[in-house]
C-alpha cells in the first residue's frame, strides 16, 4: 500500500481527504462516523457571523426590549453560540484523533479575533476563515474586498499560535496576487475555492429561491486551473482544492496540479461516507500502478511551472479547439 500521508497548513494528515465545513460536521456523532469512514481531517460546521446577527434581530423583534438593549442581546446570542461551538470542539478533540479545523464564517472585521484564542484553547488544530462578502456598492473602492481578507487574517494571527487558513471565493481579479498577499501576512494555507449561495428566481411566483445547492463535477475545471497556476507561482504555500471534486480521479488530478489536500462536501451528501474509502482506494491503486510510493513524489508534477506548455492553464487553448467549429 502506498503512503497516503500529506502535510497541509502545518498539519500532518493520514490522507488528503478533508471534510469541508457543512451540516455533515455539526455534531460529534457525524464527525466520528466520518473519521471511521477514513477522513484525513475535519472542518467543523462554520460559526456564521451573519446568522448570529440575524438571531439577535429576531430576539429584538420578538421582545419588548428597548433599542438600547440590542448590544446586550447581540452579545448574549454571540456568546451562547460561541460556547456551543467551543463545546463541540472539546468533545470532538476528546473522541477523535484526526485534525479538527474550526471554521469561522465572517463578512466584516467583527470580533472574531477575540474568540480565536478561545477556539485555540478548546483544542482546535487550526482555524479556517471563510470571508463571505459580495461587493454591491457602486462607490466602493477597488481593493477593499481584498484588503478585508488581509485585515481579518492579521487580526486572527495575532491572537493564536495554531495554523490559520483562508478559504477564498472565486471573485478575484488576480487570484495569484491574492494568495501571495495572504502568504506575506502569514497565512498557513489557502483553500481554492469557496462556493457561495446560489440565487435563483421562480418566474411563476415571482419570488427568489435557492439555486443549485450542490456543486457538480464540471465546477472542478476552474478549481484545478487555479490550483495549478497558484502552486506553480507560489510553491511554498500549501493549498487545498475545493468545489467540484466528485470523482475519485479528481483527487489525483488536484494533487498533480499542486494541492496538498482536497475538501469534499457535495459528493458526501449525494453518495454518503462510503465515497471516502472509494477515493482513497483509487488513489492508492493509481499510485502503485504509476510507481509512486508517496504523495510528495508527484504532488505538483502537472502545475503551472512544471508543464512545458503553460497555455494548457490559459484561455488560448479555447481558440485552438473551438475556433473552427460551425
Automatic annotation (TrEMBL):
Pathway: Pyrimidine metabolism; UMP biosynthesis via de novo pathway. Keywords: Flavoprotein, FMN, Oxidoreductase, Pyrimidine biosynthesis. The keyword Oxidoreductase applies. Residues 4-286 form the Dihydroorotate dehydrogenase catalytic domain. InterPro entries: Aldolase_TIM, DHO_dehydrogenase, Dihydroorotate_DH_1_2, Dihydroorotate_DH_cat. PANTHER family: DIHYDROOROTATE DEHYDROGENASE (QUINONE), MITOCHONDRIAL-RELATED (PTHR48109), SLL0744 PROTEIN (PTHR48109:SF3). This is Dihydroorotate dehydrogenase-like protein. It comes from Coprobacter tertius.
Amino acid at each position: 500500500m502506498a503512503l497516503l500521508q500529506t502535510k497541509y497548513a502545518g498539519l500532518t494528515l493520514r490522507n488528503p481527504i478533508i471534510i469541508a465545513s457543512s451540516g455533515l460536521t455539526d455534531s460529534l456523532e457525524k464527525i466520528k462516523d466520518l473519521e471511521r469512514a477514513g477522513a484525513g481531517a475535519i472542518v467543523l460546521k462554520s460559526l456564521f457571523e451573519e446568522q448570529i446577527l440575524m438571531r439577535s434581530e429576531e430576539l429584538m423583534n420578538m421582545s419588548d426590549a428597548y433599542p438600547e438593549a440590542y448590544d446586550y442581546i447581540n452579545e448574549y446570542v454571540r456568546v451562547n453560540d460561541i460556547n456551543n461551538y467551543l463545546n463541540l470542539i472539546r468533545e470532538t478533540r476528546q473522541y477523535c484523533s484526526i485534525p479538527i479545523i474550526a471554521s469561522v464564517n465572517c463578512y466584516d472585521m467583527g470580533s472574531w479575533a477575540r474568540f480565536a484564542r478561545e477556539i485555540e484553547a478548546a483544542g482546535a488544530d487550526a482555524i479556517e476563515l471563510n470571508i463571505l462578502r459580495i461587493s454591491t456598492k457602486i462607490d466602493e473602492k477597488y481593493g477593499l474586498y481584498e484588503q478585508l481578507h488581509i485585515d481579518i487574517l492579521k487580526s486572527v494571527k495575532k491572537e493564536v499560535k495554531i495554523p490559520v487558513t483562508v478559504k477564498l471565493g472565486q471573485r478575484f481579479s488576480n487570484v495569484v496576487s491574492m494568495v501571495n498577499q495572504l502568504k506575506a501576512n502569514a497565512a498557513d494555507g489557502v483553500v481554492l475555492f469557496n462556493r457561495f449561495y446560489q440565487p435563483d428566481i421562480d418566474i411563476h411566483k415571482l419570488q427568489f429561491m435557492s439555486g443549485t445547492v450542490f456543486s457538480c463535477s464540471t465546477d472542478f475545471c476552474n478549481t484545478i486551473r487555479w490550483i495549478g497556476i497558484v502552486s506553480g507561482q507560489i510553491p511554498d504555500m500549501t493549498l487545498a482544492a475545493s468545489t467540484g471534486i466528485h470523482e475519485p480521479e479528481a483527487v489525483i488530478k488536484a494533487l498533480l496540479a499542486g494541492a496538498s489536500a482536497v475538501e469534499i462536501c457535495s459528493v458526501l451528501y449525494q453518495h454518503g461516507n462510503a465515497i471516502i474509502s472509494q477515493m482513497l482506494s483509487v488513489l492508492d491503486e493509481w499510485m502503485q500502478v504509476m510507481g509512486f510510493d508517496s504523495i510528495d513524489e508527484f504532488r505538483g508534477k502537472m502545475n503551472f511551472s512544471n508543464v512545458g506548455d503553460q497555455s494548457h492553464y490559459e484561455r488560448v487553448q479555447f481558440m485552438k479547439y473551438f475556433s473552427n467549429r460551425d
